[in-house]
Amino acid sequence: MPTGSSGPVAPPYAPRELGDGLLLRSATGADAEALAEFNAMAHGGPPEIPDVQAAIWTRDLLRGDHPTSPVSDHIVVQDLRTGRIVSSCLLISQTWTLGGIPFGVGRPELVGTHPDYRGRGLIGAQFEVLHRRSEERGHLIQALTGIPNFYRRFGYEPALIVPPPRIGFPTSIEELPVGTEEAFRFRPLTDGDLPFVAEMYERSTRRSLVAALRDEVLWRYELTGRDPGSDYCHDLHVIETVDGAPVGLIAYLKILAEGSLFATLVELREGVPWKESAGPVLRFLRGAAEAIAARDGERLRSFGFVLTPDHPLRRLAASQLPLAGRPFAWDVRVGDLTRFLRHLAPVLEGRLAASDLAGYTGDLRMTFYRSGLCLEFAEGRLASITPWLPEPVWQAEVAFPGQAFLHLVFGSRSLEQLEVAFPDCRIRNDLSRVLFETLFPVVPSVIWPIG
């Protein structure tokens, strides 16, 4: 998608009459205020509490300078009798990686319908054109966050699960000993820091199976392109030694969420000791949380870090971050599973080569009860993927109900966990079990998406 100073360019969706005076069309810049007002209402809480951050985010996106989401990628349903917007959503294009393999992702967001117009299939109509555009761009999956269970009807599965955050309280953090100074200091990011930020972010993504890619254009937008009131706006600070050498990066949201502040990234350069930096990082984030709470007139309840379980800070600060929050899931839609698995072949082959089954030749067959696939390996290479369905289907040696298999693909659940959760998930062959456990291990993901 071409980009420029005014953002990417894309043709508008073809207008479509939905009946009963309703028109589906692309949004334009002229819709910015009306759509911001609509999203504030649609995503607000009862009783009639508008979501101010959703309105600010909408205005940001409708300005026309977002690096990957042109204004024409916003869909609205308008009631022609009143002129009101009654339903809307949008597509934010981005590139993610899985095991280092990049692929296109379409992210639907700000999905909502006015209460008086729900139950008419308006979201389904919008998703139909949104998915088509996403696939035309070469996106291999769509991923979103939103109402639990709702998006299953459109082919999504909450299969990309982010580990629960570690949470601490202001009083649980160890104070700096009297008479000593912090070994590190923190300063706001500047434009000249972008290469260093990109380096730290790339280093942090190595801890995650799935990650979003960011180029300099996207980093510049994160730094200067967002309204500070947006709930997607982050504060980024460079971690420095006392003599001013940059050694790390910390990013956290600019607002509290239900009285809590969360850091989404903490990373250090290779060779910088985590043991000495853990205390300063914890005290800095506590101070940032207290400042935000005072600024916004809120009560600070807690703060924490959204990090992979093996992150050094998470382990070194375990006693100071005593609680685990709720795990968070991305709903993912894989329109063509065969194509996606073929794209991930280097990851699967690499895992096989590093295992006791290196050089394996044979088939790995699975049924999803109404469909199925056969993965054929030749000397450790994924030679082909073809449809497969046994007859009768319940005699299959490997079976996954619905879209349960996606939990393995995205590293969120082990084979054993799926068997416990789904009685109709069956593995009857020892070799197949070892193959699945080798090809699809549990590997956590913490994703900072493009929003």
Beta strands, count: 21
Overall average residue pLDDT: 95
* Stretches with pLDDT under 50, minimum 5 residues: 1-5
Number of helices: 12
Largest sheet properties: 9 strands, mixed
Distance from N terminus to C terminus (CA atoms, Å) equals 17 Å
Q: Specify the helix fraction band.
A: 25-40%
Strand content: 25-35%
Give the class from helix and strand content and strand pairing. Answer: alpha+beta
Radius of gyration: 24 Å
Shape: globular
Characterise this structure.
The chain has helices at about 30-40, 50-60, 120-135, 195-205, 215-225, 275-295, 310-315, 335-345, 345-355, 405-410, 415-420, 430-440; strands at about 15-20, 20-25, 75-80, 85-100, 100-115, 140-145, 155-160, 165-170, 185-190, 210, 235-240, 245-255, 260-270, 300-305, 325, 330-335, 360-365, 370-380, 380-385, 400, 425. It is α+β, with helices and mostly antiparallel strands and about 450 residues long. The strands form 4 sheets. Strands 1, 2, 3, 4, 5, 6, 7, 10 and 16 form a 9-stranded mixed beta sheet that branches.
